[in-house]
Amino acid sequence: MGQRKRISAEARKEANKTLYFAKLKNVPTSPRKMRLVADMIRGMEVNKALSVLRFSNKEAAARMEKLLKSAIANWEEKTEERAENANLYVSEVYVDSATMLKRLRPAPQGRAYRIRKRSNHVTLYVDTKITNDNQN
């Protein structure tokens, strides 16, 4: 690795130490379905987001709930505080597409249709909401 690349990689690692996130990779759900769940909780307070995910009918909601709990645990580990005392919220949620399994399904007259089994990567960031009571 070159010197310039090493310096930028170390700077990126230092910046990640102040961020509180969790990643979920290779989820066997299409990114479109996972984005629907991600849009439900983006910007929400953590406890409210957990209850929304718990009572959602979508299959992706169970995976997102587990990821959110992991992000909260990461925040507690890094800050050495309890999540109940802090004003945590879901700051960012990214859903990116991952590898695609390509399969063939038989079709009429000797043809074959391609089936694309999609998967995704999810990154969820948690942060504390700072209330500015002194300004008001």
Describe the structure.
This protein is α+β, with helices and mostly antiparallel strands. It has a single domain (20-128), classed as Ribosomal protein L22/L17 (Ribosomal Protein L22, Chain A, Alpha-Beta Complex), CATH 3.90.470. Helices cover 40% and strands 29% of the residues. It is built from 4 helices and 5 strands; from the N terminus they run H-E-H-H-H-E-E-E-E. The protein has helices at 3-16, 31-41, 46-54, 59-79, and strands spanning 20-27, 88-97, 101-106, 112-117, 120-128. The strands form 2 sheets. A 3-stranded antiparallel sheet has the order 1-5-2. It has a two-stranded antiparallel ribbon with strand order 3-4. Helix 3 (46-54) packs antiparallel against helix 4. The N and C termini lie far apart (51 Å).
The CATH architecture assignment turns out to be: Alpha-Beta Complex
Strand order of the largest sheet: 1-5-2
By DSSP, the count of extended strands is 5
Query: In CATH's first tier, which class applies?
Result: Alpha Beta
- Classified in CATH, the superfamily is Ribosomal protein L22/L17
Mean pLDDT: 92
> CATH topology, which one?
Ribosomal Protein L22, Chain A
Question: What is the number of domains?
Answer: 1
**Helix/strand/pairing category:** alpha+beta
Give the DSSP E fraction (strand runs of 2 or more residues).
25-35%
Query: Helices and strands, in N-to-C order?
Result: HEHHHEEEE
Radius of gyration: 19 Å
What does the main sheet amount to? 3 strands, antiparallel
Shape label = flat
Number of helices: 4
